[in-house]
Amino acid sequence: MIAVVDYNMGNLRSVQNAFSKLGCEVRIVKDPDLISNYDKLILPGVGAFGDAMEHLKSCGMDEAIKEFANSGKPLLGICLGMQLLLESSDEFGEHKGLALIPGIVRKFDKALFSTPLKIPHMGWNELFIKRDNPLFKDLPQEFYLYFVHSYHAKCDEEFTLATTHYGYEFASMINRDNIYGLQPHPEKSHENGLKILKNFTKM
Question: What mean pLDDT, rounded, does the chain reach?
Fold first, then answer.
């Protein structure tokens, strides 16, 4: 069974519907005491990093997610949910994250862009695989997913599964042991996104 964390900051129904298309049952879970009952966990997220961490802490979900991660069972963070897996973010001030994967979250720096680009980064963009992983089964070495974000992850290479170029290269998929993060939205990315979710269900 797969649980989707409900902390009032995620596009839960879209994620649930994507798994339904794969014939997989997922449960939206609001009680942190129930998280450990599930085999896999999805941490979605839409909004600001600091607000999201406050929501997680206020309901005790932050510690439940950490305990789940430490159990060795697969955990996937999507969009803001991926960013929350990192150590900190400077979105509207400095905020600590769950620190499950080493790295930080920073806003796109237009000063480093080779050509003028709009922020947020929105639309389809290409991912370049840096390390082999079961999440990439049946996907080409380079493929497109759908993005909507103004902040991005900065991680060492050893935690970077894939990168994307928008003004400059950034980490768009990250991983440490059983913990995975995906900056784009697989639930909005049609066939390629569904393949990633399907591969996650088989872990």
Answer: 96
Closest CA to 169 of 160, 159, 182: 160
Judge if pTM exceeds 0.90.
Answer: yes
Tokens (6 digits) for 89 = 């973010």
Strand 179-182 with 121-129, pairing: unpaired
φ/ψ (deg, to 5) at 154: -120, 110
pLDDT value of position 9 = 86
Catalytic residue ranges: 79, 185, 187
Where in the chain are the domains?
Answer: 2-201
Burial of 123 from C-beta contacts in 10 A (0-12 / 13-18 / 19+): exposed
Q: How far is CA 154 from CA 40, 82, 114, 168, 201, in A?
A: 25, 12, 19, 12, 27
| Domain 2-201 classification at class level | alpha beta
Q: What is the mean pLDDT of residues 107-111?
A: 96
